[in-house]
Amino acid sequence: MKIAFQNGENLLHVSDNSSECDKDTFFLLTDQNARYQGNAQEQGCTHFISPTECLSLLGIDKKIKIIGITGTNGKTTTAAAIYSLLLDLGQKVGLQGTRGCFINEKRVEDKSLTTPPILQTIKNLKMAVDEGCEYFVMEVSSHAIVQNRIDGLFFALKILTNVTQDHLDFHKTIDEYIAVKSRFFEDESLKLINSDERHIRFNRINAFTYGIEHPATYKVLAYSLKEGISAAIAKKEKVYDFESSLHGFFNLYNLLAAISAVDLLHVAGMEEICEAVSHFGGVEGRMQVVSQDPLVIVDFAHTPDGMEKVLESMKDKNCIVVFGAGGDRDRTKRPKMGAVAERYAKWMIVTSDNPRSENPDAIIEEIVAGIQRTESLHVKVDRYQAIEEALGMQKKSDVVLILGKGDETYQEVAGVKYPFDDRNVVLEILARLAKQK
């Protein structure tokens, strides 16, 4: 990637690809490309800078406050909620994560990695600074921590959502995964930690907590999950109330983290922050209600813990759950996902997610290995047919939950991405079923 930055009256060319370098280009040295420094020199490059030097040269380092959020689940919703609250409170703010990059309510980059390469992050930060943003909210993945893709960034606030099993195809063991997440919180920067997450290790200097079950700086005293979320938060001796249209116990955590974070940034008083929560409508593909009657919800949940949180939030309803598991990813979670579905669902329809280079039937077989109650199990390899079957068998008291892909607009099979959006498929099938009545 080669980017031209306007820096005052000067145009600064920076690249993290040695083959794109020349005598007028700065080669941004990272852990991933340092071995290609010699190749950059052969191209005529004589300017080599670190991410820290690049941020300083562009004047970014002191002009914007970066809020970094890591955790297995909840990063996207928590980041979006903080972004929404800051905007509602009159701040200029950027947001970077799984859904792309947004600056002051405008999308400036499409979906990418949860945490892109550092040069892309620097580009997004520079755009945010140029647009007058004082805050920049970003998701931080465990891969990015391991690969030092956040080197050079100074975080004004670091937030932990939770740590559960995921990415063991990359990290190999849950202990290694926890150690990576913990590394993000080793320094003395301002931190906000989920007090109900008992595995993480963190530096207690400048650390604040939020939670529901254990003592915390920001603690939920009471809550209701009927027709949305309403809750009372205690901060020191004072109690504050908020309401939201979002569903689920896990979203109570996400909103609590967002409220606590904005309060720690001293943007506004707790009353004003809590009032602004009602304006946040959630994130596409995260507990997204695609149809109200019949009730059909699409969610990104693709881990045992993520599935449990979604299904537990609907435990008072008869659930028909459609799900699969991604190919070329942690195989150990597949039977666990099957077991979670069995625990909560009235009917289970196991199908393809993104099989990638794996055989879809083999993935499904590994999921089904975790299911004992086979009389409630249907298998449909074709995802369209699986959704069609779920909607066809749905009764008025049932909710159909379609999990795993959220707002993805494709299905990846054998290296090819085919257009496929769970939400559009639902609407298309419901429209056809309505005509047949």
Structural class: alpha/beta
- CATH superfamily of the largest domain, called what? Mur-like, catalytic domain
Please give the order of strands in the largest beta sheet: 8-7-6-9-5-10-11-12-13-14-15
* Shape label: globular
Total count of strands: 23
According to CATH, what is the topology of the largest domain? UDP-N-acetylmuramoyl-L-alanine:D-glutamate ligase
Main β sheet profile: 11 strands, mixed
From the alpha carbons, calculate the radius of gyration and give it in angstroms: 23 Å
Assigned CATH class of the largest domain? Alpha Beta
Cα separation of the termini: 54 Å
As for the number of domains, it is 3
Oligomer: single chain
| Strand-residue proportion | 25-35%
Number of helix segments?
14
Task: Describe, in plain words, how this protein is organized in 3D.
The chain is globular, with a radius of gyration of 23 Å. Helices cover 32% and strands 26% of the residues. It has 3 domains: 2-49, no CATH class; 65-279, Mur-like, catalytic domain (UDP-N-acetylmuramoyl-L-alanine:D-glutamate ligase); 288-436, Alpha-Beta Complex (Protein-Tyrosine Phosphatase, Chain A), CATH 3.90.190. It has 14 helices and 23 strands. The longest helix has 16 residues, at 249-264. Helix 1 links the parallel strand 3 and strand 4. The protein is α/β, with parallel strands linked by helices and 437 residues long. Helix 3 (75-88) packs across helix 8, helix 11 crosses helix 12 (360-368) and helix 13 crosses helix 14. The strands form 4 sheets. Strands 8-7-6-9-5-10-11-12-13-14-15 form an 11-stranded mixed beta sheet, with helices on both faces. It has a 6-stranded mixed beta sheet with strand order 16-17-21-18-19-20, with helices on both faces. A 4-stranded mixed beta sheet has the order 1-2-3-4. The modification N6-carboxylysine is found at residue 181. This is UDP-N-acetylmuramoyl-L-alanyl-D-glutamate--2,6-diaminopimelate ligase. InterPro entries: Folylpolyglutamate_synth_CS, Mur-like_cat_sf, Mur_ligase_C, Mur_ligase_C_dom_sf, Mur_ligase_cen, UDP-N-AcMur-Glu-dNH2Pim_ligase.
